[in-house]
Amino acid sequence: MMARRSFITGLIGLSFIHPALANGDEYYRFNALNPKALGSQVIFAGMVKDTAGGHIPDAKVTIGLNVNTFYGEKFVSFNAYTNLAGRYRALDVASVVSALEEVTVDVDPAKVQLSISKDGYTLVRKLNRSRRGQKAGVFEVDFTLEKTKP
């Protein structure tokens, strides 16, 4: 009876651990992405830290680009937010633009604009760690913020 109870307790414990990995830290790992799907996607991800190297949670990373729509050119933007470890990962830019504006676009990563905001902080450094000439996949862009002086 005791062995059966331990087995059931173990199963219950595993069921609570697995969903946390599915929507938690694993989402922010670049190599957790499907390499076959990355062939045509443009995804921005990275880290946001303060000048002392501490993680900054809940920072807002805005991803935007100019898009030709049925009504003319329009700047389309969407947001991603950092987790407790200061990491963010945005959705595929073309998929978001398609969902928002109902147009199909070929995204040129060089024309995508990234900005960061967090109350009480100012941008000190933006570091693009992506490969030169990269046209698709994950583009790693890190930010360093400094606390504003009161």
Which structural class should the secondary elements be placed in?
alpha+beta
How many E strands? 7
Question: Helix tally?
Answer: 3
What overall geometry do the principal axes of the alpha carbons give? globular
Main beta sheet: 4 strands, mixed
* Name of the top-level CATH class of the largest domain: Mainly Beta
Assign the CATH superfamily of the largest domain.
Answer: Carboxypeptidase-like, regulatory domain
CATH architecture of the largest domain: Sandwich
Low confidence ranges: 5-23
Work out the helicity level: 10-25%
User: What oligomeric arrangement do these chains adopt?
Assistant: single chain
Number of domains: 2
Distance between the termini: 63 Å
Write up this protein.
This protein starts with a helix and ends with a strand. The chain has a four-stranded mixed sheet, with no helix packed on it. It has a three-stranded antiparallel sheet with strand order 3-2-5, with helices on one face. The chain has three helices and seven strands. Helices cover 23% and strands 37% of the residues. A hairpin with a 2-residue loop joins strand 2 (60-69) and strand 3. With 150 residues, the protein is of the alpha+beta class. The longest helix has 22 residues, at 2-23. It has two domains: 1-31; 33-147, Carboxypeptidase-like, regulatory domain (Immunoglobulin-like, Sandwich).
